[in-house]
Amino acid sequence: MVVNTTVSALNYKDIDEMIEYFRQFNLTYHNFELLRGSPKEKNLTLPPLSEVKKIHSKAIRARNYYIERMKLGLLEKISVLGITKYTQSLKERVLDSGDFPFICSAGKNIIVLEPDGQVKLCELLPSVGNLKEYNYDIEVLLKNDRTKRQMAEIADHCRCTHVCFINMSVANDIKTPFKLPYYFLKWKK
Ligand code: SF4
Questions:
Q1: Is the CB of 34 under 6 A from ligand 1?
Q2: I need a surface site. Which of 5, 19, 43, 181 has the fewest CB within 10 A?
Q3: Is residue 106 one of the residues assigned to a domain?
Q4: Residue 173 maps to a domain
């Protein structure tokens, strides 16, 4: 069982207590992800970047705690902590400068399918069509004009901290296997 805590300006001061509280349970691990998108509650925002960096350090130490508790091997430790540190650094880069070294994978190797058939390139963007209107053929749907327009907008200016989509961009990058040991060595800094 995994617990995922969404970090926002409303709860980030309680991170230490949350980490400690969940250690009493038999979890696989306790994960922390940054709030993303545009919540309806306007006071629900991200903490400042300086605090995000501190939270990232706590989150990766928490992840290491569960790796050690489950006595996982070194390879798993390098890959899990390496990818966590790498994606954390990408999120910090987006928050700091808006810069992201990839074009987001949305619509290429990941999409969102809503229960009613609506297809979204990511859940933060409007639907590009409903599968029901395309005889349930996702490949035909993804060739429509709405998809092409959104793909162009994504390539042009879309950047965010959505880790599922960052992971898919990272997974597609041939350099990733070489980067993970580097970020693993950086994680304690
Ligand atoms: S960067 Fe990717 S995941 Fe983020 S809003 Fe844009 S398309 Fe969606």
A1: no
A2: 43
A3: no
A4: yes
